[in-house]
Amino acid sequence: MEEFVVTVDGPAGSGKSTIAKIVAKKYDLTYLDTGAMYRMIALYSLENRVNLEDERSVVEMLENTKLDIIGNQFFLNGKDVSAEIRTPEVSAVVSPVAAIKAVRVKLVELQREISKGKRIILDGRDIGTVVFPKAQVKIFLVASPEERARRRLNEYKEKGIEEDYESVLNSIKERDHIDSTRKESPLKKAEDAIEIDSSKMSIDEVVEAISNCIDRKVG
Questions:
Q1: Is the pTM here over 0.70, yes or no?
Q2: I need a labelling partner for 104 at 20 to 30 A (CA). Which of 2, 58, 114, 133 fits?
Q3: Quick one: how far is CA 165 from the chain centroid?
Q4: Which strands sit side by side in the sheet containing 30-33, from one edge to the other?
Q5: What b/e sequence results for 6-30 when a residue is b if at least 16 CB atoms lie within 10 Å of its CB, and e otherwise?
Q6: pLDDT tier at 68, thresholds 50, 70, 90
Q7: How does 102-137 read in b/e, with b if 16+ C-beta sit within 10 Å?
């Protein structure tokens, strides 16, 4: 089977995971939620009060974490943490955790290993720039901070998590700043990526736009 890689990068709450899952189903691609991998490390750091400023503590944390993804379920050291990794508490620390070089090195290596030889779609912050710079299709999905905050708030409501709009908006803006200014693999658009602003687009419209990009490559 010939390797075919689609990357979907963009800021928090831009709809990457939702869109990538639909596109994966449409084109029979494997879907890898790289953001969930960073969230699992962030959850572990919270639960075990890891000092992220201490390199030895971070290395020890990475040695003690085993990540598994089975379908739409995420397992941290054998425990299903699919719900826990989507809480506001984890969202608040995932960007600082993802900015740590040792964490990125381990997870990028894991992402490449999982993807080897597959027809796959991955979403994240640096997939098209760092993980798979030679991917056949690269998408950079954006939306206004206000629209992303509304979407994230709706996600929380569906899960029974109470949060207010201003807190979510501030969190989104803070994550944008950390992700785009961090030293290790900052969030940025790859030169050959197609930018799609989903602020005023429906899910179907975004899927159609990405489908057109894929069809041009495989057609």
A1: yes
A2: 2
A3: 22
A4: 30-33, 119-124, 4-9, 137-142, 194-197
A5: bbbbbbbbbbbbbbbbbbbeebebe
A6: confident
A7: ebbebbbeebeebbeeebbbbbbbbbbbbbbeebeb
- Return the axis-axis angle of helices 145-158 and 165-181, rounded to nearest 10°: 120
Residue 185 in tokens: 């693999």
What radius of gyration do the chain's Cα atoms show? 17
The count of other CB atoms within 10 Å of the CB of residue 69 is 17
Question: Containing H/E element for 215?
Answer: helix 203-218
Asked if residue 7 lies in contact with residue 127, where contact means CB atoms within 8 angstroms, the answer is: yes
- For the record, the structure tokens of 66 come out as 């085993």
One-letter-per-residue 3-state SS of 137-161:
EEEEEECCHHHHHHHHHHHHHHCCC
Torsion of CA 148, 187, 65, 101, to 10 degrees: -150
Helix runs in 28-87, H state only: 34-47, 55-63
List the alpha helices (DSSP H) in 79-144.
Answer: 88-98, 101-115
Provide the mean pLDDT of the chain.
Answer: 93
Torsion of CA 132, 138, 144, 149, to 10 degrees: -50
What phi, psi does 41 have (nearest 5°)? -65, -40
From first CA to last CA, the distance across the chain in angstroms is 17
